[in-house]
Write a structure and sequence with these properties.
11% strand, 39% helix, two-stranded antiparallel ribbon, 160 residues, 4 strands
Length: 160
């Protein structure tokens, strides 16, 4: 039993998953929302667990994430080709509503991002820069969640 680092649920079964290149402990609900399958009692747990990022591979692919201004790049790429959202959607077999969400800042799945890159001649996905990360300091007996850290950052930004 553990604490989910995403939603803060305590005394729950947690799974190690990768989120934006970081390995975290997440409950079953948060894990399934991010596309990870949860092992059932009938299946062999060793086959369904998420591998650690430290696993040795012969060829490692760089970890990619969406650029901070990906939504602007998508809109500019579409406009430079003189296409409307509906036209691009028909050409790529993607719903216009989804394209509007991506242009509004919702991160597209990697497969869709790669298709958009190819179609529009832009780059959306960038390599994740590895930087030094300081450890999380617990202020009390309660575990710190990602949401707690975000709240602290927002408070610090508003005080400056």
């Amino acid at each position: 039993m553990g604490v989910c680092e995403l939603c803060g649920r305590e005394n729950t079964g947690v799974f190690n998953i990768l989120v934006s290149g970081a390995q975290i402990s997440a409950c079953g609900s948060c894990s399934t929302k991010r596309g990870f399958t949860i092992p059932s009692k009938e299946t062999n747990r060793a086959k369904t667990t998420v591998k650690s990022p430290n696993t040795n591979f012969r060829k490692t692919r760089p970890a990619l994430e969406a650029a901070s201004d990906f939504h602007i790049r998508i809109r500019r790429g579409r406009e430079s080709r003189g296409m409307s959202v509906e036209e691009l959607g028909k050409k790529m077999n993607i719903r216009a509503q989804d394209l509007q969400k991506y242009e509004g800042g919702s991160v597209p799945p990697d497969a869709v991002a790669k298709r958009l890159e190819k179609e529009l001649g832009i780059s959306i996905l960038e390599e994740i820069e590895k930087n030094d990360v300081s450890p999380v300091v617990k202020r009390s007996n309660k575990s710190v969640t990602i949401a707690d850290m975000l709240d602290d950052l927002m408070r610090e930004a508003s005080n400056e």
